[in-house]
Design brief:
Number of helices: 4
Radius of gyration: 29 Å
Number of strands: 0
Structural class: mainly alpha
Distance between the termini: 59 Å
Helix content: 55-70%
Length: 84
C-alpha cells in the first residue's frame, strides 16, 4: 500500500489533467476499477486509534461460573427450598 499513499499524495495537489493520468496509473498498477481508484485516491489516510472495548466479556472463566451456581443451589437446598 506504499504505492497507494504516494499516489494519494500526488493526487491531492494535482490538476484535472494530471489526476486523469494518476487514475490511469492506479487502474493499471493496482488493478482497480476507475471509480474505486477515485475513492481510494480521494480518501483520507486511515489512522488507527485507541480501541475501547465496552460491553460484557466475550468469555467467562469456566471455573468461576460453575462454582457460583452450585454454591447457590446447595444453599437453597439446605434451607429446604427447591433449587429451581
Amino acid at each position: 500500500m506504499e504505492l497507494l499513499t504516494k499516489l494519494r499524495r500526488r493526487y491531492e495537489t494535482a490538476g484535472a489533467e494530471h489526476k486523469r493520468k494518476l487514475l490511469d496509473q492506479a487502474q493499471e498498477l493496482l488493478g482497480y476499477h476507475r471509480k474505486s481508484a477515485i475513492r481510494a485516491l480521494g480518501a483520507p489516510a486511515v489512522v488507527s486509534g485507541l480501541v475501547i472495548l465496552t460491553g460484557r466479556p466475550v468469555r467467562y472463566e469456566p471455573d468461576l461460573s460453575g462454582e457460583r451456581w452450585t454454591g447457590c443451589w446447595n444453599r437453597c437446598e439446605v434451607k429446604g427450598r427447591d433449587a429451581r
